[in-house]
Design brief:
The chain has 418 residues and is of the alpha/beta class. It contains 13 helices and 22 strands. The protein has helices at 13-24, 54-58, 62-75, 136-146, 161-172, 186-196, 200-215, 271-275, 315-333, 340-363, 368-374, 389-397, 404-411; strands spanning 6-9, 30-32, 80-82, 85-91, 94-99, 104-107, 111-114, 118-120, 133-135, 154-159, 179-182, 220-222, 225-232, 239-246, 252-256, 259-264, 266-268, 280-283, 288-291, 304-306, 380-382, 387-388.
Length: 418
């Protein structure tokens, strides 16, 4: 049997738009996703039986979500659609899969587009393993997928557009946060303004969210440094009760709550790119290692292409543009005709999304060094292995670990997918 022309991993905005371009060119790609339905995280669909309007689920992005869902549904007859399927390995060009029934399989496609998206980017805070502490993404999924808030008195902490979007969504759901704690400062916002002006409509929308929160009386504190998520009880009876932090003036403060959502932007899902042996480069603004690819998403590894947040962290609109670009690269490399004008439009759109992304990175910078300095030795940094910050620091200072893998060998920190 001849190998399939293309496999796409991920049926979010990037994967769906890549499939759309390939189908229009006469290719029937295999489209794989871990979830039961297409849409990705940003346009996650509600469970069967739920009948909430798109405006309730996606707010200002409802029209885009509906359009993407409609495209994905239309494409099902033209793609080999494999939901609830995990791409767990990639070796020597073979993509290894397992479906919901536990059946395993392997595929060797001529071209592989990885559109795996991103996950929450978090940093350990003392008490972050307490029941009632969630990531911002989990707090949002709770609303989208189950129409439930994570608590009655919710504190949201972090930096970036997701912080204010989730706060606004909770407000509109009738469960206004008791506080929004932002680690970025007003000076940071000014530094990011030129880049964010690449998308004035989105910038205005963010300002509207902020204004709505202030009008509702939601306290917003900027320039904070989180110190601890304080809780009470033992074992199954333990629960978060407050967020303790230092404000921009250096004063220690505390806000009572029964749930916390926290996070800083997103972290690219790069495991498959790494397994494919794609080289990585450090992005100085995003402060992450990202896989290397050209403007179309073509990597230095033959037959491997990247799209969406797993490549560039440029949001849903940027993911749609980069998904199309990856498909154009596949068509070009397979010797198929390419719509040059459409490719040029996608390139221009993607460049604009990256300018906006860089503006956001300046406006809401990753505060890793500040958070690390504030983290006490007793705080857990690896919840699976229960490794503390003190143990990790000792692996460097006392045992001489000079890089992450050595520290892992000494302390077992970071042994899991996280």
């Amino acid at each position: 049997m001849a190998p399939p022309d293309c496999v796409i991993v991920g049926a979010g905005p990037a994967g769906v738009r890549a499939a759309e371009v390939l189908v229009a060119a006469g290719i029937r790609p295999i489209l794989i996703d871990e979830s039961r339905a297409s849409g990705g995280q940003i346009y996650r669909r509600q469970p069967d039986g739920f009948r909430r309007a798109p405006s309730e689920l996606y707010g200002s992005e409802a029209q885009k979500a509906v359009a993407l869902h409609a495209t994905a549904d239309r494409l099902k007859a033209s793609v080999d659609w494999r939901p609830e399927t995990l791409a767990w390995g990639l070796r020597d060009g073979a993509l290894h899969l397992v479906d919901a029934a536990g059946r395993t399989s392997s595929i060797r496609p001529r071209a592989l587009i990885v559109a795996a998206g991103a996950t929450d980017r978090i940093f350990p805070v003392k008490g972050w393993t307490l029941p009632g502490v969630y990531t911002l993404g989990a707090a949002q999924i709770s609303l989208k997928a189950q129409a439930m808030a994570i608590g009655a008195r919710v504190v949201l902490l972090g930096a970036g557009p997701l912080l204010y979007l989730v706060a606004w969504q909770y407000l509109k759901a009738g469960n206004a946060p008791v506080a929004v704690l932002d680690t970025s400062s007003f000076a940071d916002r000014l530094a990011g303004l030129p880049g964010m002006s690449a998308r004035p409509g989105v910038l205005l929308l963010g300002m509207t969210y902020l204004l709505d929160l202030r009008r509702a009386g939601v306290p917003i504190v900027t320039g904070v440094t989180p110190l601890a998520f304080d809780g009470a009880g033992e074992g199954l009876d333990a629960a978060v009760e407050a967020v303790r932090f230092r404000d921009g003036r250096g004063r220690e403060r505390s806000v009572a709550c029964d749930a916390v959502g926290f996070g800083w932007h997103l972290r690219a899902e790069t495991q498959l790119a790494d397994l494919a042996k794609v080289p990585f480069d450090h992005h100085p603004l995003l402060r992450q290692w990202l896989p290397r690819a050209d403007a179309l998403g073509r990597t230095p590894v033959a037959g491997v292409y990247l799209a969406g947040d797993g490549l560039q962290l440029a949001g849903a609109d940027g993911a749609e543009a980069s998904g199309r670009l990856a498909a154009y690269a596949v068509l070009e490399d397979l010797g198929r005709p390419v719509d040059v004008a459409a490719r040029a439009r996608a390139l221009a759109e993607n460049a604009r999304m990256k300018r906006f992304r860089d503006g956001l990175a300046r406006a809401f910078p990753w505060p890793g060094e500040r958070l690390a300095q504030a983290l006490g030795d007793e705080a857990i940094v690896c919840r699976c292995e229960e490794v503390t910050a003190g143990t990790l620091r000792a692996s460097v200072s006392d045992l001489g670990a000079a890089e992450v893998n050595r520290a892992k060998a000494f302390s077992r920190v970071g042994m899991g997918r996280c």
